[in-house]
Design the sequence.
């Protein structure tokens, strides 16, 4: 396996410093090409350590195909530990496929899409705060749908289909990297790892094992599938994610844990005002499993209290 690390120019900042995409290319013999992007959201960095584990693992190993990694897609957001750009309200993961002659954020998106669109499989690594790690499946056409489903299952992580179509489009996920990839028949998955600020150590390990399992599935490396036994894994094959929002605001006093199974009507959290009074009991609207909680422990009116995994039919 040959490894090459390069800076792909995107533009420059007002102070004259160069904006570039750090790209790591690992090339082996004939085989599929995988593209991995990280830190599209600047404050989501757990995946970096997953890739450090991966590079250590692949050293001296035979690789069939190639892995191209854009390791720090949104460098300015990363520098200032924010999700979007410090100089604009745009969300880079709602801007794909970008525009090579547009604004700097558009040009970053275009450069990343140029790399991703040539791949046989795309993995976009994110973090979802206080969560169990999961693989997110976007709505794909019949040509690639089953293949994506199989690869998602091979990861060993909880597999969730994305929100219902109306919400999916309304919050712009059809303009995310994975959303645009699958709508162009490029097989892709979003990987959501734990991490609120900085690298979540166990999340990074889970991300590494999931990527390794996927590379095995794509027959790019040799080895045995590894089980992820240090996080709850929800085994259902046809689960989707669903948000539970608050009616009121305040501090969150949770009554459930990550991975816990809940019934319709189970109390997920109590919302308290600054005086400690209970102002709302947030209950589960469906039977399902707790995938994500609000790591900030505070919520605005209509804010997210939890994400559940629920059966697709329900
Ligand atoms: Zn993200």
Sequence:
């Amino acid at each position: 396996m040959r490894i090459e690390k390069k800076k792909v120019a995107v533009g420059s900042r007002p102070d004259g410093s160069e904006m570039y995409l750090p790209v790591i290319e690992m090339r082996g013999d004939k085989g599929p090409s995988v593209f991995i992007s990280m830190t599209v959201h600047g404050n989501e960095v757990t995946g970096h350590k997953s890739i450090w584990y991966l590079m250590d693992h692949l050293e001296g190993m035979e690789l069939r195909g190639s892995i191209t990694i854009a390791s720090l897609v949104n460098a300015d957001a990363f520098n200032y530990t924010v999700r979007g750009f410090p100089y604009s309200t745009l969300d880079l993961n709602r801007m794909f496929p970008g525009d090579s002659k547009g604004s700097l954020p558009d040009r970053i998106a275009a450069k990343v899409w140029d790399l991703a669109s040539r791949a046989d499989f795309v993995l976009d690594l994110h973090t979802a705060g206080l969560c169990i790690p999961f693989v997110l499946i976007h709505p794909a056409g019949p040509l690639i749908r089953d293949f994506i489903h199989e690869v998602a299952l091979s990861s060993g992580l909880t597999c969730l289909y994305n929100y219902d179509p109306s919400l999916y489009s309304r919050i712009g996920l059809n303009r995310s990297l994975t959303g645009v990839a699958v709508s162009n028949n490029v097989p892709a998955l979003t990987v959501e790892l734990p991490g609120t600020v900085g690298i979540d150590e166990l999340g990074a390990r889970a991300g590494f094992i999931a990527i390794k399992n996927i590379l095995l599935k794509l027959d790019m490396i040799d080895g045995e599938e590894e089980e992820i036994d240090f996080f709850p894994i929800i085994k259902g094959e046809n689960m989707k994610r669903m948000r539970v929002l608050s009616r009121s605001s305040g501090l969150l006093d949770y009554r459930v844990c990550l991975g816990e199974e809940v019934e319709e009507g189970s109390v997920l959290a109590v919302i308290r005002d600054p005086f400690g009074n209970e102002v709302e009991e947030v209950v589960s609207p469906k039977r399902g499993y707790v995938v994500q909680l609000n790591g900030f422990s505070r919520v605005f009116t209509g804010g997210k209290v939890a994400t559940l995994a629920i059966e697709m039919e329900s």
Observations:
- The mean pLDDT is 96.
- The longest helix spans residues 201-217.
- The pocket of zinc ion is lined by residues 41, 44, 93, 126 (CB under 6 Å).
